[in-house]
Design brief:
The complex is a heterodimer of chains A (293) and B (282).
Chain A lengths: L11 H27 L2 E3 L6 E3 L3 H7 L2 H34 L4 H8 L1 H4 L2 H12 L5 H8 L10 H29 L3 H9 L4 H12 L1 H18 L1 H7 L11 H11 L3 H27 L5
Antiparallel strand pairs in A: 1-2
Chain B lengths: L5 H28 L4 H5 L11 H10 L10 H32 L5 H11 L8 H10 L6 H9 L3 H12 L2 H9 L4 H12 L1 H16 L3 H6 L8 H8 L9 H21 L1 H11 L2
Helix pairs in contact in B: 1-14, 3-14, 4-7, 4-8, 4-11, 11-15, 13-14
The chains are: A mainly alpha (293), B mainly alpha (282).
Chain lengths: 293, 282
């Protein structure tokens, strides 16, 4: 799409676009190309010497069982976050769409977690589930269930899933609600006249019409679980116990900043970049083919 | 409304109440914890009703003096967070307005190249290129400076695309009229385009402010000196004492303080917030 009427100037557009180009060249393109370059090099921890090693870093990664494990953990984590988060917020949105009285109060309270930083969400939930003083871990203990996420890998995973879902619920809820409200009332009314009850109307009309929203949210939630949960994990488990909650982004950080394996960390960054690009392409293709009703 | 069966309304309210309960529980507990003394909280189970230590807890948190994990006060950390969030927000909006204006309203060589160069930045969040970006910022001597905290986060194109989309919907007749009246491009930008973009700017402001305030990974790498810690980092550092050794009341008071500004922005600007959220994801 282009404007019909355009201004003419030989220097003005360059001046206007200059600040943005400067910033993205220095802080985006330069580092991104460095990551590509580094992923093909082997550098010692002090940065004294480096040599070109081709795809060795990648080969090393693909033969590294801890990297495989991290992949598996990330997949598990993102599926759990996306599925639980989407189902919960869909249920909430469906009922919020029906509620007339108090709708504003419910909505305002439900969007609160969006304002909370991931790291702080992590701190809030770790307080609740702290093995020694947490309220819920105490309650579970009374029920005969021993909660200690510092020892138990499954519980550590459950913990970061809970905090991540909690943090993302507002976002999903708002999009589902907007999607539901954009469904023409006449469709619902017509179905109602034909004798469809609320249950039937949900399965045959609302849910199918929400599928574009659902798909969009699915991609967004996976991206969220992959990248934006760093703060949650660092505040809650720091990747532990062992490596049980060390998702891919966390591993880039651990290997790069803690273990100073620059080449390996850069190679991991490159793999992550490819994953994001693939996800973005999926999303854009979907946007183009967006079903119109 | 199609049907008004009574039990369905009751069910709706029950589900909503359960949802709100689930969402509000951690916030409620944090608020309660911040009104007790550290000793009261480590009693198992901790009290679930407000205590009387609220004033002292918040005073200790805000102005230091307690046995915090760091020497700087939360008030100072909040100031750092505030400056960072504002610089990111205003910086992003400014450079994006200008570059979107150039891309939509001018014809110049390599225009499509610039367009795609900006577009690509949408794809890669800071998280995937942390190490090399860190190196660039370190080489520029920007560790522990506001420039280092903010500039790399400004380098993304969400806002540029939002403004581009919006400018494309502005009727061409306005440009024609402005030109006929003898207005140059910058005059048109200032007197016509900017006022029209007000709601987009407000929406973007809300989203970017929260984004900037809630940053974690980047400040974690970027700040080694305590007086440059944003509050989100500060709270993490307070947890270093391990499980029961923490002053949980102060940690929770800090958490409440840290979520206050973004929460206020969301509540007070709810209309723009929802618009901004929906628009930036299109």
């Amino acid at each position: 799409m282009e404007k019909r009427v355009l201004f003419r100037s030989s220097w003005l557009p360059w001046a206007l676009i200059l600040p943005q180009m400067l910033i993205i060249s220095i802080f985006f393109f330069w580092p991104a190309s460095q990551a590509l370059l580094q992923s093909l090099q082997l550098e010692d921890a002090f940065g004294l010497s480096r040599e070109f090693v081709g795809l060795d870093n990648f080969r090393r990664l693909f033969n590294d069982p801890t990297y495989h494990a991290s992949f598996k953990i990330t997949a598990q984590f993102s599926v759990l976050v996306a599925v639980i988060g989407l189902s919960l917020s869909l249920v909430l949105a469906i009922f919020a769409d029906r509620v007339v009285r108090g709708a504003m109060v419910y909505k305002t309270l439900l969007i609160m977690p969006y304002a909370v930083a991931p790291a702080i969400a992590g701190v809030l939930w770790i307080f609740i589930f702290s093995p020694s003083i947490g309220v819920l871990s105490y309650g579970l203990g009374q029920l005969g269930y021993n909660w200690n996420h510092l020892m138990n890998e499954g519980q550590a995973m459950a913990l970061i899933v809970i905090a991540s879902v909690w943090k993302q619920i507002s976002y999903n809820f708002l999009f589902f609600l907007a999607g539901l409200q954009s469904i023409p009332k006449s469709l619902i009314e017509a179905a109602s006249i034909d004798g469809a009850g609320p249950w039937r109307r949900f399965w045959s009309i609302q849910l199918p019409l929400l599928s574009p929203t659902t798909f969009f949210l699915l991609v967004i939630n996976i991206v969220y679980a992959f990248f934006d949960t760093f703060g949650i994990i660092d505040a809650m488990t720091a990747g532990g116990p062992g490596q049980a909650t060390s998702i891919l982004v966390y591993k880039v950080y651990q290997d790069g900043f803690k273990a100073l394996d620059l080449g390996g960390s850069a190679a991991q960054s490159v793999i992550l970049m490819m994953i994001v690009v693939a996800l973005t392409v999926v999303q854009f293709r979907y946007v183009e083919k967006k079903v119109n009703y | 409304m199609v049907d008004r069966s009574r039990w369905l309304t009751i069910l709706s309210h029950t589900v909503m109440l359960l949802g709100v309960l689930m969402v509000a529980f951690p916030l409620y507990l944090a608020l309660i914890a911040s009104t007790h003394t550290a000793e009261a909280i480590v009693q198992v189970p901790m009290p679930l009703l407000p205590g009387s230590n609220m004033w002292e807890t918040y005073k200790a948190a805000l102005f230091g003096g307690g046995k915090l994990g760091s020497n700087t006060s939360v008030a100072h950390m909040m100031w750092v967070s505030f400056v960072t969030a504002i610089v990111i927000t205003v910086g992003k909006i400014l450079i994006s307005l200008l570059s979107a204006f150039a891309i939509v309203y001018f014809r110049f060589p390599f225009k499509m190249f610039f367009f795609w160069a900006i577009f690509v930045t949408l794809m890669l969040p800071v998280e995937v290129r942390i190490l090399p970006t860190y190196k660039v910022v370190a080489d520029l001597g920007m560790i522990n400076t506001y420039a280092g905290l903010t500039l790399p986060l400004i380098a993304s194109a969400t806002a540029t695309f939002l403004f581009r989309q919006f400018f494309l919907t502005v009727p061409d007749e306005l440009v024609e009229a402005a030109r006929m009246d003898g207005a140059g491009p910058m005059r048109f930008f200032k007197d016509i385009l900017l006022p029209l973009s007000k709601t987009s700017i407000a929406a973007l402001f809300v989203i970017q402010f929260i984004y900037g305030w809630n940053q974690y990974l980047w400040p974690l790498l970027m700040t080694t000196s305590e007086d440059m810690y944003p509050v989100v980092i500060g709270i993490k550092r307070m947890l270093a004492g391990g499980e029961a050794a923490n002053d949980w009341n102060i940690v929770m008071a800090t958490a409440i303080l840290a979520m206050l500004p973004p929460a206020l922005v969301v509540i007070l600007m709810q209309k723009w917030f929802v618009k901004g959220l929906v628009d930036t994801e299109k």
